[in-house]
Amino acid sequence: MKKPLATFLEKSEEKAFSKEHRKRINTNMVKYHEKVASGKKQFKDLKAARETAKNIKAFTMQKLPELLEEFEKNFKARGGKVIWAENIEQAQNAILKILRQKAAKAVVKSKSMITEEIALNPFLKEQKIEVIETDLGEFIVQTKGEAPYHIVTPAMHLSKEDVADLFNKKYGTAKDASPEQLTAFVRRHLRKRFASADVGISGGNFLLADTGSVVLVENEGNARLTTTMPRTHIAVVGIEKMIPSIEDLDLFLPLLATYGTGQNLTAYNTILSGPRQAGEPDGPEDMYVILLDNGRSEILADEHMRESLYCIRCGSCLNNCPVYKNIGGHSYDSPYSGPIGAVVSPHLHINSFEDYAHLSHASPLCGSCTENCPVNINIHQLLLYNRSYEEAENLRPSSEKWMWQIWKKAMLNRKLMNAPAFSKNVFRKLYLEKQWGERRVLPKFPRNSFNQLWEKGKI
Questions:
Q1: Per-residue pLDDT reduced to its tens digit, 358-379
Q2: 234, 95 in Cβ contact below 8 A?
Q3: What's the CATH architecture for 43-294?
Q4: How far separated are the first and last CA of the chain, in Å rounded?
Q5: 96: pLDDT confidence band, cut at 50, 70 and 90?
Q6: Nearest of 206, 209, 199 to residue 230 by alpha carbon
Q7: Where are the chain's structural domains?
Q8: Cα 52 from Cα 54, distance rounded (Å)
């Protein structure tokens, strides 16, 4: 079995040197940046808005235990049920228990990265329970048998021709079907599933402490159908999604929309505060919120990494990262890709720290991720902290450590620095080119070093 680093390098190379892949991603990124530039104009003082959002999240993390208890109290007051899940296994088992109680055979699910984190779809498949993704992008990648490519746009890597060909083979639609025709087909297909599903499962973009509510943000309306048509609704939400008050949505909803898709506001913004109340015409009979920890408490306790919990999952850092724009989301092999994924994946209890440690090196540390974060997370600094943790745990590849030891010894030894150019060039050819020169033309060592030229008075 290949090590995660080897798999990452293999996938990255394949994507980075695929002209078709880069063309598709760059086309989508250009459109994204044009929309974001327009969306930012709604803010009178964008710098102040971002700093305010960061301060609210910092306060939230400081008061997170109290705010979680406040949320639980207010949510339960309206008939909702709260389940605390310490890890993936507890979250999976809690969901399975509810589904067994409801005798559920099929569930509809709105777009949710946290259900990717807990590997919910394969888990329920093992339990003979059908899961139907209802977000268009998620439906496409589920049909294709792939994981989401991007935090916000799961099928960004596929062209309309790819989707038409996929649906033709799977569902018998026309080979030359247009995007509008394919969307209409998916809408008709899913309407039946919404009506017949036993349970709806969603994530949550925000938790509101003061009203005991879950906030869902979307552009298709599938989340509303997922949460209102089935008799039971389960929301799986990370504990870091908390914000203190419903009034804070005035700031966070426009920030998420602008940096996520370039909109002033997403088409559907839903606040759910429990199951259907007396006199209400629709909504589930039962609503559960599963609050997932899965390593978040440990991140919260780490003064360096705590800031990563401010993330509102807009995907902006992915869209601005030069590495992500070349290697794509699947290379990361994590539910959370891109810069923020490289930061949090090693700390969440998905796999071991070592399995994801290499992701923090998939960055030029240019700071573009930090510059374009709506809540001003110092992402590039957090990548450096991850690297320092990796070094402290002695997790760097032995070949790399060996090379750097040789480099250090040479740099501190004047005789080696002034060694004949021939011997240094032999070393370059035999070792350095194998490590770093596969697609680079490494410079040759000159006849004389700087020190030798200085002593000869030629400098």
A1: 999 999 999 999 999 999 999 9
A2: yes
A3: 3-Layer(aba) Sandwich (3.40)
A4: 54
A5: very high
A6: 199
A7: 43-294, 400-455
A8: 5
Pinpoint the alpha helices (H) of 213-333.
222-228, 249-261, 296-301, 316-320, 324-327
Beta strands (DSSP E) in 28-86 are 81-85
d(CA 98, CA 110): 18
- Of residues 311, 290, 259, 235, the one with CA closest to residue 60: 311
Is residue 327 classed exposed, middle or buried when 0-12, 13-18 and 19+ CB atoms within 10 A define those classes? buried
Q: Count the Cβ atoms, other than its own, within 10 Å of residue 383.
A: 21
Rounded CA-CA distance 160/146 in Å is 17
SS3 content of the chain, % helix, strand, coil (to 5): 55, 10, 35
pTM surpassing 0.85? yes
Dig out the tokens for 340 from the structure: 């923020």
How high is the pLDDT of residue 400?
Answer: 78
**The two three-digit tokens of residue 362, written as one number:** 């998939």
Do 52 and 177 form a contact (C-beta atoms < 8 A)? no
CA 105 to chain CA centroid, Å, is 29
